[in-house]
Amino acid sequence: MSLIPRWEYMTDDAKAMTKRVVLSAxxxxxxxxxxxxxxxxxxxxxxxxxxxxxxxxxx
Length: 59
Prior knowledge:
By secondary structure, the protein is mainly α. Helices cover 80% and strands 0% of the residues.
């Protein structure tokens, strides 16, 4: 017998907890992927803003 109980032998509470954990893990992975994709754009936007402010101050 395996160490992890099979789905049909799990209680309803255990099934609900398993579904919540999987959903939370998927949301976490999706958000990490999205943040990782957006970090370069945020850096470029901040640098552009700082350069614009620096050039505006010079006039």
